[in-house]
Amino acid sequence: MAPLVDEALLNDPEQMAARDSREVLVALATAGAQVRQAITLSREAGIERVAGGDRPRSVLVASLGGSAVVANVLELLAEPGSPVPVTVRRNLPLPGWVGPLDLVVAVSLSGRAPGPLAVAAEAARRGASILTVGAADSPLAEVCARARGVHIAVARGATSSRAALWSLLTPVVMAAHELGLLEAGESVLFETADRLDMHAEACRPRSESFVNPAKILAIELGETIPVVLGDGPLNGVAASRAASMLSRTARIPATYGELPDAASQIVASFDGPFTAGGGRGAGVRESAPDIFADPFLDGPAQPRLGLLMLRDAPQEPPTREWEEAEALTNAVVQTAHDAGVRVLTVAAEPGHPLVRLAGQIAQTDFAATYLAIGLGLDPAVSPHVADLRDRTRG
C-alpha cells in the first residue's frame, strides 16, 4: 500500500512543529531573507574582488549534497551566453587544465565537506583564483584565506544546506554577474527574494491543507511512486532538486529527468508494474482502482506511479523551439494519463529565469517537507543516515 499522508496532522501547527525538530519549515520560509542577507554579506566581503575583478578563462564549481544545486543553477544561468565555460566537479581529481587563469568556486555550508574542501585546496595549490561560500571559521575559509581568495560567510544559525540553499547560491550568482558570465544583478536577486516570500506566504504552516499548494502536492505525492520531470533545462534543475528533497527529506525514492532527452526513459516506465495497467502493456488501461478489492484477501494495493511535471511559464512571443518543446511535454502528459499514471503539475510564473526557478524550488521544497511530516517523519533527522555516518567515521 502506498503511504498515506495524515492530513489532520498537516492542519495542526503545534503537531507539525513537534515533528519538525530543527525547524526546517521555518528555515524554508526565510529563503527570501536569506537572499537579502547574502547580498549584504557578499558586499561586505568584497565580492567584486573575485578573480581580481578580471574575467577568468573558465569557472569550475564544486558543491555536493544539499548544496549540489548551486553548481547546477550557475551552469544553467551561464550556459546561454557565458563568454567562458562553466563546469561542475563534486570532488577530486581536479581537471589538469585548471591553473592560474581559472576561477574555482567551492561551496559547503559547514566549510568541512571533503569534496569542495579538497577541490579548493588543490586549486589554491595550482594558483587558481578562489571563491568559497560557507561557515566563517572553517577549514574552507582557511584555505581561501591562504590563497588570498574571497570567502563569503553564511549567516550563523543555519544547520542544513538543504534549507540554506539561498544563502549559498546568492553569492555565487553575484560573483558570476560581476564577472559578466550571466545577467542577474541585484534587482533580479531582490525579485527572487520577493518570489520566495510569496511562496512562503502561500505555503505557510497555518494555511489549511485544502488551499495550501505545497500541502496539496504533498498529499498527492504521498499516494504515488514519484517521477519528477522538467520540461526543459530550467525545470531540469528544479526536477533534480525536487527528487533530492523527496528522497532525503521525505524518504520517498524519486527519480527525475529533463525533456527532451528523458522522454523515452520516462514514458517507458508507464508500461511497468506501477501503472493502472499493472505491467500488462500500454494498451490496457484501468483508470480507477477496484472499489470491491479486499486488501486482506487480494493483498495490498499496488503503489501507483506518479508523474510530477514541472512546467515553465509560457514564452511570449512563442518561438518555434518553444512550441516544439510544449508539444512534447503535452504528449508525455497525455501518454501518462492514458496509462493511468497520476499526473501532478507545478507551473512556473513569468520572470527572470532565476526568479522562475526560485518559485519552482520553493513549492517543491515545502511539499517534500510537508510530506515528511505528514508521514510521521522528522524532515531533518534520519536514523539511517546517522547510522551510515557512524559506520564510515574514521
Map the helices and strands.
Blueprint: H1 7-10, H2 13-19, H3 24-29, H4 31-45, E1 59-62, H5 68-78, E2 86-88, E3 103-108, H6 114-125, E4 129-134, H7 139-146, E5 150-153, H8 165-178, H9 186-202, H10 213-221, E6 224-230, H11 233-248, E7 255-258, H12 263-268, H13 295-298, E8 304-311, H14 320-338, E9 342-347, H15 353-374, H16 383-392
Parallel strand pairs: 1-2, 1-3, 3-4, 4-5, 6-7, 6-8, 8-9
Helix pairs in contact: 4-8, 4-9, 5-8, 5-11, 6-7, 9-15, 10-15, 11-15
Per the CATH scheme, the topology name of the largest domain is: Rossmann fold
Instruction: Supply the helix-strand structural class.
Output: alpha/beta
Q: Please summarize the sheet with the most strands.
A: 5 strands, parallel
CATH homologous superfamily label of the largest domain: Glucose-6-phosphate isomerase like protein, domain 1
Helix content: 40-55%
| Mean of pLDDT | 92
- Poorly predicted parts: 282-287
> Given this structure, which CATH class of the largest domain is correct?
Alpha Beta
Helix/strand order, N-terminal first: HHHHEHEEHEHEHHHEHEHHEHEHH
Helix count equals 16
